[in-house]
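One thing: can you check what follows?
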Amino acid sequence: MAMMRYNFFSEVLSLCVDVTITYPARRFTYAPDSKPEHVILESPKAPLQDGMKLQTVYILHGGGDDDSLVYRNTNLERYAEDNCVMTVTAQAKDSFFIDTDYGFRYYTFFTEELPRVVQCLFASSPKREDNFVIGMAMGGNAAMMLAMKRPDLYAGVVDLSGGIGCSVDTDYFVDELVTWKKIRRLPAAFGEAEKQRGGPWDLGAIAQKNWDDQVTMPALYIAVGENDFIRDVVRKDRDALRAIGYQFHYEEAAGLKHEWAFWDRYIGKALYEWLPLRRTPANEPA
């Protein structure tokens, strides 16, 4: 696996942003007859081709984390290499991945600027069927938010332990901004609780409209640890989606909590089992 730490100036945010990108580089060879000098046997490699593109998984980090932490605490690099996907993880601070009330437009960054930059400067396929999202904790809520607000961008979305931030249960979402106001960044990001119903981050209303309009949705996957302190909140999203009529996969992991052991296991499960990945070295050149 090849790893890059890419820093660029975001026009949307007016900030320099750190992005970690991985390529399944050991799946490819620069020439069909090339031979590594070491003696370790490797599986056959595909030749690098002009204009080739890779399926891409956007990883949304949790609260308090940065773009590098998931790679340091899970086996994501190996999982991505095995499944022949590119990964992209950008630093979102604790913005909840939304266009915040205090002025930083992270939702716009993640849905418009970041994919454009990644698809133009790196070997990332722009096709919907080649793009996916996995989010953890704060990033889990954000993954669900991206699925509901921009279903046109992704073929599959995975919400792991998403419990603080946007919710499909509108009543809970509004109450959360009052109950959890001690987490000052939460109301600072979303604004006043009483203004949320029918607003841009009311996923319950957006999910219902998608359903009524028969919008083509990404494949949805939700999982949480059985002993996670946020488990009952995740169940609220599960129940709200079921009440509307959505089809999705839901799991609770026995004995696991809000922890890296859970996220490592389920990032692996998402890549090996859940997401509709092609798992071939590359698509046809553009």
The first helix runs from residue 69 to 73. The chain has one domain: 12-24+51-274.
